[in-house]
Amino acid sequence: MRKKNQSSLTNKYWLLAISGICIILMVLSLISNSASAPFRGIANITVIPMQKGINQVGMWLSDFSSNFETLQSIKKENKALQEKVDTLTIENNNLQQEKYELERLQELYKLDQNYADYEKIGAHVIAKDSGNWFSTFTIDKGSADGIKVDQNVMAGSGLVGIITETSTHWATVRSIIDDSSNVSAMVLSTSDRCMVRGDLSLMPDGKIKFEQLENNDNEVPVGEQIVTSYISEKYLQGILIGYVNEINVDSSNLTRSGYITPAVDFRNLQEVLIITTTKADLKEAESTDSTQE
User: What is the pTM of this model?
Assistant: First the structure.
């Protein structure tokens, strides 16, 4: 309590002292304007320098206040500009996403037109196994949408894989690059058959292995198309698998083998097309037609 009273008294003394100094300065200022030369000289020595100092301090405070207001104004403008930049960035990202989605959908549409004889359903990829490659993954369509096991799946420019499991609203796809995948295929120009085998260890090089191609007089150049074979048990005929990247004669001299560049980007899959007709459906339809004849 005593400290509080002492502090209050000290403040009062400072206030009185400052007030006294101000009064003295005012008196000296009046004297400097009206008094005789000696008093004016004293005033010039004491008052005028102090007035100049006070004026400079006042000007500095005025400039500081002006600069502070300008700084605040600039900060507000910067904040508004940053908000605008953020908005434009979001809009640009959305436009880029829409552009890429449009490009993918255009690819699917082109693929749909290339295989117009087959009925298809579009689906989105919603999950995948661990790793960089879409060897097995899940789509957002299931039995309720007409999806069933052994239906062929496409994307990009050709074959992705086959449906291996279905639920009401989802299904699992095993792609042709999976280690357990084997696809009966053929060279498009000659119809010579071969076997395409999945091997994830080859995918960093962007290749799929093919083998058991007969070593005959039919030339198979690099870039030749490899498609699904007409004798495949589960894959429909003529779906593009990829393009010959390398071909060699085997040690037996009876067969050739090599590598294919796949027609699908198995690192990035977002949308796919599912052919709703299976190979078994076609065989059953052909059998019914032959019986009726």
Answer: 0.67
